[in-house]
Design a protein that fits this description.
This protein is mainly β and 72 residues long. The chain is built from one helix and eight strands; from the N terminus they run ββββαββββ. The chain has one domain (3-59).
Amino acid sequence: MTAQETATVFSFRTYDSQTHGMVLAPFKAERDVIRSRFSGEVLEGTGHEVPRHALDNEGRYRRVATGWGELD
């Protein structure tokens, strides 16, 4: 796959207004999406390459019971 066909996604933490603390997001996203859309903090060392088509319309890469991947 070429660089245009893949995306590097990361785990991240974001602020939860109900608990007034940082929580782990239930999905991964690209670094710029984490910062701009989710106001999150990237967890370095958690990145991996995925096919770009595996991201949803909001740039999320969700984990499924069998591993990291798309929700069907």
